[in-house]
Amino acid sequence: MKGFQYVRARSVAGAIEALAAPDAKLLAGGTTLYDLMKLRVETPAVVVDIQRLKELNYIDTSRPRELVFGSGARMSDVADNPLIKRDYPALSESLWRAASQQLRNMATLGGNLLQRTRCGYFRGGAPFPCNKREPGSGCAAIDGIDRGHALFGGSASCIATYPGDLAVALVAFDAVVDVVGPGGRRTVPVSELHREPGDTPHIDHVLRRDEIIVAVRVPRTTAGRGSTYLKIRDRESYAFALTSAATGLTLARGGVVEDCRIALGGVGTRPIRATRAEESLVGKRVTEATARAAGELAFAGAKPGHHNAFRVELGIRTVADALVIAKKRAL
Ligand SMILES: Cc1cc2nc3c(=O)[nH]c(=O)nc-3n(C[C@H](O)[C@H](O)[C@H](O)COP(=O)(O)OP(=O)(O)OC[C@H]3O[C@@H](n4cnc5c(N)ncnc54)[C@H](O)[C@@H]3O)c2cc1C
Ligand code: SF4
């Protein structure tokens, strides 16, 4: 690991000030940043530690229209919150199906949202070229082992998958993040937080280097109660998604769908909202056939590579199963 200066921030304002130093980087739980520093993917000159900031570590379920989480809230605290489990099972499940208990005890919501891809070439480095790690060097995955790579949103420069689970559930429910920087405060929809790679895959998201996510806000909706986060992976714990789906339903009398939410994880360069699939179910009942048809619509534009075509059918079934689970909860 390259040497660095350590700064412990006493406030959000102090952290923003410290981020003005060249090559400064925020540290929250450290569960992914330290990893990347050891792999020399990240080589910050200054590390600005915000993990002890109480102003960022809270869960506010008292508001009538939205749930609000400080960006420093721990994944495990949010996952285990009884009200969130009841009113928003998809949120809770997206967190407790991620990583391990030890990691969730340390890791924060802000850090989870801004984690980087798990592409093995990106993490492994030389001799493999990687445009995300070394802009302009090439992409080893495109003609290499692409089993875990993206079916949606890839470019000629990069096909890496966005690996996080929480962002998928947040995108399904129109959540936003509040961001503070030297220019003040702004709000960014989670659906617009992550970037497609295009020809600049080294830029993962739309935030500036000196901006801090301070809060995550999730609108309350009845579709939250009828929701789930279904994650399919190589083993049942401690693994990233091969495919995942966050689904939520509001049902009218007779089980007819009034509101439908579907977002896909593990398959795109960023989380994907499957709006055509959502619309296909409104006004219908969720049956095995309509759920399967919605899954097929969600994956209609998938572009598999050499080793990942199996994840198209897997993804269709993940969406269909997640809709059936959501329906049971929404009834
Ligand atoms: C073995 C292993 C398995 C894992 N499995 C999963 C999984 O299945 N699903 C999943 O979703 N995740 C998984 N993860 C990732 C894990 O969830 C992340 O490491 C964790 O959420 C990161 O949170 P952190 O607070 O530790 O972030 P840090 O490591 O401190 O920071 C991560 C990044 O976010 C930036 N950052 C942190 N906070 C803020 C903020 N408030 N504003 C702006 N930038 C910020 C940092 O600068 C850094 O770039 C796994 C990790 C490991 C090591
Ligand atoms: S897919 Fe992206 S992250 Fe992976 S090797 Fe190619 S450029 Fe790098």
Explain what you see.
This protein is of the alpha+beta class and 331 residues long. The protein folds into three domains: 48 residues, Uridine Diphospho-n-acetylenolpyruvylglucosamine Reductase, domain 2; 115 residues, Uridine Diphospho-n-acetylenolpyruvylglucosamine Reductase, domain 3; 109 residues, CO dehydrogenase flavoprotein, C-terminal domain (Enolase-like, domain 1), CATH 3.30.390.50. Helix content is 30%, strand content 20%. The strands form three sheets. The chain has a five-stranded antiparallel β-sheet with strand order 4-5-8-6-7. A four-stranded antiparallel β-sheet has the order 9-10-11-12, with helices on both faces. The longest helix has 21 residues. Flavin-adenine dinucleotide binds next to β2, α2, α6, α7 and β8.
What number is the mean pLDDT?
Answer: 97
The CATH architecture name of the largest domain reads 2-Layer Sandwich
Q: Proportion of β residues?
A: 15-25%
Low-confidence stretches: none
SSE pattern:
EHEHEEEHHHHHHHEEEHEEEEHHH
Which labels suit this protein?
12 strands; globular; alpha+beta; Enolase-like, domain 1; four-stranded antiparallel beta sheet; 3 domains; Uridine Diphospho-n-acetylenolpyruvylglucosamine Reductase, domain 2; 331 residues; binds iron/sulfur cluster; Uridine Diphospho-n-acetylenolpyruvylglucosamine Reductase, domain 3; binds flavin-adenine dinucleotide; five-stranded antiparallel beta sheet
